[in-house]
């Protein structure tokens, strides 16, 4: 019974009569064959209606709108730190290939792609929440987006649905600080995984670029080595790295299922996992559609960044 | 490029005596000799890289544990050996080293060491099956699509694209939710999507390989389509598959552990590492760290071994980087 798609349209407190169920099935085309149902779904999707989610107990569009900001916040912070660290470390490793620094970064990035993300999250929790026994309270607060016992997100005005931005706009600075502290541990977990991929890509493209003719030319002009690296080599090496960063960001935006589940982060990844387990077909369809849109947008942004980095690429 | 003898640049150039010997030897040796030489050269190159050696040692260790788990941790006389035996006289988790538990124990005297050892067998068998079957399906699809071209290619690749566009973990979770929650359904769910990546990879390789002159030569000398596909195109296209397959052995285990952690993979009490982490998680806060740390470390080492190997193989098998 719980797995039936009509359950969402009934009142959970009143048992539904067979006639009511039949009426619901008729109204929402649940008696039709799958391809007809798919036609109705497509029709609805074109009109901005993705159906109703069984697990979220609300419209799919509304559920996505509610949950996406949490995922977005996490993805932006994680990607920001991964990009800054990854490009710095990757550049250095590529310039000094086979040095101790390069070997070290190789080990870090190999561990990064091999580590189970839920286990890494648990270790980070142990280190930060328990604070290594240095503070009685721990360094960071527990899971979730904010301390639900101290603050109430629903009572402040929602400008963007991003907690960190909304709290600042409302002038609630202690609430802001609390939400930032909640962000650190899950963002760190996701950052490490993406960091590994960015370092690897940056290192290999740096190696390639450092052997190029124009780098030799720049050196023979008598430019200082750091200018050669910063302006001639790194800028060109960034082009292939951008693709990796863009796809990684797209991947995070489409929900980090394991990390969001572990840190009880109310994003779309956690919801997608619940929808998949609860066989919430409307929810899964909506999530898949959103994922596809995100990947298309991420690729578009990557192409735009290409044009900025590489003047040879011209738009339009 | 590796399947064929590449004389150019090889340190051991075939002497005229060797060539004479090859002429008189059987046709089997004609095929095998250059390949054995190639393999030896590849091994020689790999032995120079520290990370490859580390990967090989780690892998050898894991293969040994997966092949002979009963030598290291004796299973109970009856019952499923993959279920960690319980001892209800020890309800409280014991720290490592106490009461004969090398890595400590979980609730009800579940030996963490036992779980790690038998978990290696579960992970290894699972990864070999998923990657092996996917490689076969993906290679056949990609080979046919790339070689035949036209409508067949178009249809096959659109099917592949559809499968590729599905969010993998979510589909696997949905399939695992519909079917019974055990390792068998997880395997079916993963197989349903995993082949698509290989199809894409092989097709791309085949498209460039089939343009070579030696394929025209084979065709004009009257070789059949099947012979061209499997004798000429396939051996010259599978290098990236070997690298990708090796690395995917680790990735599959990461996914398996992730599903186990979410409670969708192996059933409760199984010696599956992800499941063990999940079972230890609630005890983690209370200070029983060994229940999660050791199984997680096992996953890390398993995946790391295959990634190190794949990394080394890529350097060795890539003709641009090897000489």
What does this structure look like?
The complex is a heterodimer of chains A (316) and B (323). Helices cover 68% and strands 1% of the residues of chain A. Chain A is an all-alpha fold. The radius of gyration of chain A is 24 Å and the shape is elongated. Chain A starts with 17 loop residues before the first helix and ends in a 7-residue tail after the last helix. Chain B has 323 residues and is mainly α. Chain B is elongated and about 75 Å long. At the A-B interface, helix 4, helix 5, helix 10, helix 11 and helix 12 of A face helix 7, helix 11, helix 12 and helix 13 of B.
Number of helices of chain B: 14
Strand order of the largest sheet of chain A: 1-2
Average pLDDT level of chain B: 81
Structural class of chain B: mainly alpha
- Describe the sheet with the most strands of chain B: none
Uncertain segments of chain A are none
Largest interface: A-B, 29 and 33 residues
> In terms of per-residue confidence, which ranges of chain B show pLDDT below 50 for 5 or more consecutive residues?
1-23
Give the overall form of chain B: elongated
Radius of gyration of chain A: 24 Å
Q: In angstroms, what separates the terminal alpha carbons of chain B?
A: 13 Å
Please state the structural category of chain A. mainly alpha
Helical proportion of chain B, percent range: 55-70%
The SSE order of chain A reads HHEEHHHHHHHHHH
What oligomeric state best describes the polypeptide chains here?
heterodimer
Whole-angstrom Rg of chain B: 24 Å
Along the chain, the helix and strand elements of chain B come as HHHHHHHHHHHHHH
Please tally the β strands of chain A and state the result.
2
């Amino acid at each position: 019974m719980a797995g039936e798609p009509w359950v969402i349209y009934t009142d959970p407190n009143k048992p539904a009569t067979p006639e009511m169920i039949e009426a619901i099935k008729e109204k929402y085309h649940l008696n039709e064959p799958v391809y007809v149902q798919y036609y109705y779904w497509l029709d609805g999707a074109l009109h901005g209606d993705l159906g109703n989610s069984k697990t979220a107990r609300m419209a799919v569009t509304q559920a996505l709108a509610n949950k996406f900001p949490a995922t977005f916040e996490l993805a932006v912070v994680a990607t920001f730190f991964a990009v800054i660290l990854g490009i710095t470390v990757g550049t250095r490793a590529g310039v000094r290939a086979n040095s101790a620094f390069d070997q070290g970064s190789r080990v870090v990035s190999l561990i990064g792609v091999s580590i189970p993300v839920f286990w890494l999250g648990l270790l980070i929790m142990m280190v930060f929440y328990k604070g290594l026994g240095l503070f009685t309270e721990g360094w960071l607060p527990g899971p979730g987006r904010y301390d639900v016992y101290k603050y109430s997100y629903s009572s402040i005005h929602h400008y963007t649905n991003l907690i960190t931005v909304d709290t600042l706009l409302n002038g609630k600075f202690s609430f802001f600080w609390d939400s930032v502290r909640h962000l650190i541990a899950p963002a760190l977990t996701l950052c490490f995984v993406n960091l590994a991929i960015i370092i690897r890509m940056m290192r290999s493209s740096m190696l390639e670029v450092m052997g190029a003719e124009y780098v030799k030319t720049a050196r023979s002009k008598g430019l200082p080595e750091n200018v050669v690296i910063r302006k001639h080599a790194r800028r060109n090496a960034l082009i292939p790295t951008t693709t990796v960063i863009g796809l990684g960001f797209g991947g995070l935006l489409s929900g980090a299922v394991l990390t969001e589940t572990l840190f009880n982060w109310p994003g779309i990844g956690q919801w997608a996992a619940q929808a998949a387990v609860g066989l919430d077909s409307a929810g899964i369809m909506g999530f898949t559609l959103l994922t596809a849109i995100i990947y298309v947008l991420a690729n578009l942004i990557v192409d735009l960044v290409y044009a900025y980095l590489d003047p040879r690429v011209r738009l339009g | 490029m590796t399947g064929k003898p590449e004389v150019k640049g090889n340190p051991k150039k075939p002497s005229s005596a060797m060539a004479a010997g090859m002429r008189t030897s059987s046709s089997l040796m004609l095929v095998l000799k250059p390949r054995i030489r190639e393999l030896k050269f590849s091994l020689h190159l790999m032995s120079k890289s520290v990370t490859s050696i580390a990967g090989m040692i780690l892998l050898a260790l894991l293969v040994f544990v997966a092949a002979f788990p009963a030598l290291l941790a004796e299973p109970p006389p009856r019952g499923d050996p993959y279920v960690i035996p319980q001892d209800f006289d020890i309800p409280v988790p014991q720290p490592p080293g106490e009461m004969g538990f090398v890595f400590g124990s979980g609730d009800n005297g579940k030996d963490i060491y036992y779980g790690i050892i038998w978990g290696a067998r579960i992970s290894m068998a699972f990864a070999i099956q998923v990657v092996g079957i996917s490689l076969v399906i993906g290679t056949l699809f990609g080979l046919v699509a790339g070689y035949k071209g036209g409508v067949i290619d178009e249809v096959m690749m659109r099917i592949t694209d559809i499968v590729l566009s599905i969010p993998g973990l979510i589909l696997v979770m949905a399939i695992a939710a519909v079917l019974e929650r055990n390792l068998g359904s997880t395997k079916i769910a993963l197989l349903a999507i995993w082949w698509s990546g290989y199809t894409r990879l092989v097709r791309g390789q085949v498209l460039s390989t089939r343009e070579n002159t030696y394929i025209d030569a084979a065709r004009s000398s009257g070789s059949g389509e099947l012979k061209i596909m499997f004798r000429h195109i396939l051996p010259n296209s599978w290098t990236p598959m070997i690298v990708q397959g090796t690395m995917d052995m680790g990735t599959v285990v990461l996914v398996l552990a992730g599903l186990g952690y979410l409670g969708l993979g192996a059933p409760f009490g199984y010696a599956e590492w992800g499941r063990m982490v999940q079972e230890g998680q609630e005890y983690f806060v209370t200070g029983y760290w060994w229940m999660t740390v050791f199984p997680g470390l096992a996953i890390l080492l398993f995946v790391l071994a295959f990634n190190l190997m794949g990394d080394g193989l890529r350097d060795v098998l890539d003709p641009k980087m090897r000489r």
